[in-house]
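OP here, attaching both records as promised.
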Amino acid sequence: MDFKQIVSHCKEYGFVYQSSEVYDGLAAVYDYGPNGVLLKNNIKEYWWKSMVQMHQNIVGIDSAIFMHPKIWKASGHVDAFNDPLVDNKDSNKRYRADQLIEGYADKIEAKIKKDVEKARKKFGDAFDEKQFRETNGRIIDRQAKIDDALGRMNKALADDNMEALKSLIEELEIACPVSGTKNWTDVRQFNLMFSTQLGNIAGEDGKLYLRPETAQGIFVNFLNVQKTSRQKIPFGIAQIGKAFRNEIVARQFIFRMREFEQMEMQFFVRPGEEMKWYQYWKDTRMKWHQAIGTPASKLRYHDHENLAHYANAALDIEFEFPFGFKELEGIHSRTDFDLGSHQELSGRKLQYFDPELNENYVPYVVETSIGCDRMFLAQVSHNLVQEEVPDAEGKSSTRVVMKFHPSLAPIKCAVLPLVKNHEGLVKASKDIFDELKFETSVQYDEKDAIGRRYRRQDAVGTPYCVTIDHQTLEDQTVTLRERDSLNQIRIPVDQVSAEVLKKTNMNNLLKEVV
């Protein structure tokens, strides 16, 4: 499905709403609806259990959103947490300079993909995409334009050269999407942190920031956690929490928001062993994504050309969203920058005594950081499909279905009495509902014809539907319908819970990622 259909489906079926919609909305801020909050919680549970519960040497914390302002000075956010900002003088619209250039590259890439698809149709099974991209003259020229533009952009960003960025925008003849003109201001840096005041203290003394990332709460608690949990290096600290960034251009639905949720783990290792663990977490995190059914073709690694000031190695796991491959998760070797910076500015030692080496040192850190909201969007984007299926009479009909991994589905089972006002069927259905609700997320639905109810459950990704009919009252069996195969089988009432849990229990999923 295209992106507009995905956004529309999310609202219609209670996954995501525009925040403050009754007041015409608040840009780049969204609320999660009844099905959305369940899916999001399941994603967080999957991450937390696979990261903390499945590892003896990883523990969790929940640090405060407000922290001492010196933390952001030490981390580099006060001085270096910026995006290149440029305005169009005619539309008065504000843009990120790097995203304008990336958009230029995306348009050329779209032309390349169009040529590739034409060739694929022409040559059929004999088509070799890699060879075609490497030998077709037009594609080679277009790819060279992409590489040149992005290469020069990356160099300008690394050099903090805003003049070079503006020159590149002008040279590429990039126009404002709104006004269509190329009348740009100078490019300047824009700090992304939201600030507020502490109580009644005025001025700089009372200035606080809404945290732009959750990692620093882990670093400043490093010694507290290590001592109280008695962990030995290597060990990790995990956290799920809200972060806030005053994005210049927040776009693409929940992909880029001003208030978002991160799932991060900082893994503390001996200096010199960071690349070994960097590789370990690179492999482990890719396996985590694929375990829930995300195909390898929709995931890829992207190594950073410009490393952040704290890193000696960094890559993204990118997912193919409807608008192209974009960052889903970051894996970074952060060296000892964070602990070292906090140690220097605070004047307190943040070191670990290694009994095997009989020495103190500031540990190195390997980070895995994934946006919960982006993971949510990736799951919805990949699993929302429209397909042709046989109807009750064997004819072809269209259904919209979300094929979530059963463990992540918002509702695991729907209980459906065949007839709405039949006292016996309603009672039997509610008895089954009351039993299942202790085991998993279950929904009772008696409105509309049974076929329409099936389609409604398909649209929110419910793996199983249990239909209670007149035969149930005679022999205590029900119809169990499976979402993906559409198979319907009769099973005894007392086996419903076991059948549903067999595929929806997250423990079975966790065994695949250990």
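Record two, same layout:
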Amino acid sequence: MTCPICNQDHGPLIHHFKGVADSFLLDILASEKPGWRQENGACTRCIDQAQLEQWRAVAGKDYPYTEEQPGEYRVLSIPQRLAAHPSYTGEGVTICFIDSGFFPHPDLCQPENRILKVFDIHQPEKELNWEHAHAHSWHGTMTSVVGAGNGWLSGGHYCSLAPDAKVVLIKVMDENGVISGEAIASALQWVLKNHEEFAIRVVNISVSDDFSTPYRESPIGRTIASLVEEGVNIVAAAGNNEGELLKVPANSPHAITVGGLNDHNTLHPLSYSLYHSNYGETADRTYKPELIAPAIWVPAPLLPGTKEQREAEALWTIYQTERPYKKAVAANVLNQTSLPQMLIRQPLEVLEQQVADRIELAKYISAHYQHSDGTSFAAPIVCSIIAQMLEARPELSPAEVRDLLLRTARPLNGLPVERQGFGVVHSLSAIYHAEKIHHPFPLSFNPTINYEAEKIRFRFRQETAKIVSAIGSFNGWHQPGIIMQQDDQCLWEVSIPLPSPGIYPYKYLVNGIEWMEDTRNLYRRPDGLGGFDSLLIVEDHN
């Protein structure tokens, strides 16, 4: 279709805008084409450009994340695609990455080395060999740079949302290329013993065990629960097979599990769709994932010195050389690529097309980066947002972090909630609400069950409510429900008698009209109406 603004042929045009929320965007588009109206539609490239102009207007002309990559093959940076908050960089926060292996990438080590500790869980006292990048190092290097890289090799362009965070890197793949549940559990137990020394507040796990064990029967699950109790946020990748059950640690109720978003390398949410990540009910009777984040078209580093990195550098050197000198340059570097040397004798147009095709096929986006896909990269993006939140409000507990992330996420309308959880993580909103918290809130998750006193206490934070009630199967879903009492701030609470053992779905009813999930509860199930029921699980304690 032809875009009425740029007059270029593109795919389907975007026609649906939110009047108030997108008013600034609509004004910019209309200024580009006098007489344009939103029902005429616009291509995603024009909308992207308008959104960049919107961010410049909000953040100022020196906003650092709007520079475009040279050439025609552009991939949005992570700060661009998530409208990153320009004031927070994860400073003062340490993120621990548990993964296959690592390499000291310049994006983590320049201009200062932000790696506090790196070791192999199988040989913790042996120093890692950094002379040559090993294939086992690639995955962990990518996840750590996506979560905490500063974009050193791209002039700051392909940076993460937490470029000033410190990192601890724990290798869990053995010499045979196997990642065992025992190794992951040992890594988590090391974090449990050492998190205070290294100020670890966030742990990213983009690897998994082979089992879907309930958390109380899993050393990984039990250690995650202990870490969360100690104030450490655990984030796990959901996995990349929507037909499979979630495995440990992604099925842990105490972890924030991240599924995949396909934003189609564009900025406008109306074109978003779901990535093929794992989802569904876990062995602990809750649904995962909690959130989705970009899991495709994600800029990630190439391992320095590998044949892939040398090929990318050679191809981009040819691609960016001026045409009169292109063949001469190609003659010197084409042997570093998988392209045939005979291209030197072909017409220049053939050489250019072959180079461009190879760049696109290999997913190279510069001499040092490629775009990658998988929930392995969605999870560290959420870790970097948590690092920003903790920089803004260091006293946030894991329960409060989870609450803010889930309450500010943006659901994809018309798509199954069991696949997306509460929706697309929204960094600006989460950080905004973290900044605005002025009232202390209980550190624990909801609800609190006192088996000795045979009481259950619900607590709910809602700043604008005039009346709140708890309604669920424990009272037959009868309205107005059990009226909650407000303290002198914004905390609502109520205690009810302990019902008999069982699973009781419930919601909060705010001001008599708005049904809300309990985002501080670890357990939930789809309500059949496009949302979730929170679950009160009462166990037999006799």
